[in-house]
Design brief:
Blueprint: H1 2-6, H2 10-20, E1 27-31, H3 35-41, H4 44-61, H5 69-91, E2 93-98, E3 101-106, E4 113-118, E5 127-132, E6 135-141, E7 156-162, H6 164-175, H7 192-197
Antiparallel strand pairs: 1-2, 2-3, 3-4, 5-6, 6-7
Helix pairs in contact: 3-5, 4-5
């Protein structure tokens, strides 16, 4: 999976990473969301979507529905496609911990976004929500407005991150000034190895 993650979107994420880092800022850790874990969390949509599409096709072929066919087909396609769309978004997302802040970089759907959180804006304690399969949400800030990285209570952080307890230790160490640097100012590449390290 790391090789897939490293191919189509790495160049755009690499450029955005170079632009986002401040002078002298050094990367301590980088990783990506576990898109497969998110897809599996939403697989219930497939259990509903595929039968929905099958029943809609049967109803159309037997002339049970006429004008309602198009919205019903579109709803079924949306349910089947939603987990794949989420996976594509995750492949275009990069999490960074530097010696100054945490960043979430995204190049999804042609929009380049950088969401920085300085250490002083973080909560005193970092919260982990285990979602199973070795992935979890690492929340490090509260009271944020709605975004793909915020839950319904306003808790903000890295979503669907692998080995969240280890990432929490790295973030706590970076905030305390105990850092082992991964890159200098201009990272050479966002590699599969770095994604595996996540």
């Amino acid at each position: 999976m790391d090789e897939i993650r490293a191919t189509p979107f790495s160049a755009g994420l690499r450029r955005l990473c170079i632009e986002a880092l401040e002078d002298g800022e050094q990367v301590v850790w980088q990783g990506r969301p576990d898109g497969v874990a998110r897809m599996m969390m939403w697989r219930l949509l497939w259990w509903i979507g595929f039968p929905w599409l099958l029943l809609t096709v049967i109803a159309v072929r037997n002339d049970w529905i006429n004008q309602a066919a198009q919205p019903l087909v579109m709803l079924g396609v949306a349910m089947v496609a939603a987990p794949l769309v989420m996976l594509l978004q995750d492949l275009q997302t990069l999490y960074l911990i530097t010696d100054r802040r945490a960043l979430i970089l995204r190049t999804a759907w042609g929009r380049r976004t950088v969401s920085p959180t300085p250490f002083q804006a973080m909560d005193a304690d970092f919260e982990i929500l285990d979602i199973g399969g070795g992935a979890g949400h690492l929340n490090f800030a509260s009271g944020r407005s709605r975004s793909p990285d915020t839950d319904y209570t306003g808790r903000y952080g890295f979503r669907f991150v692998r080995d969240a307890p280890r990432v929490r230790q790295i973030l706590a160490g970076a905030r305390a000034g105990r850092v082992r640097r991964l890159h200098t100012r201009k990272p050479a590449a966002i590699t599969g190895a770095a994604a595996r390290d996540a």
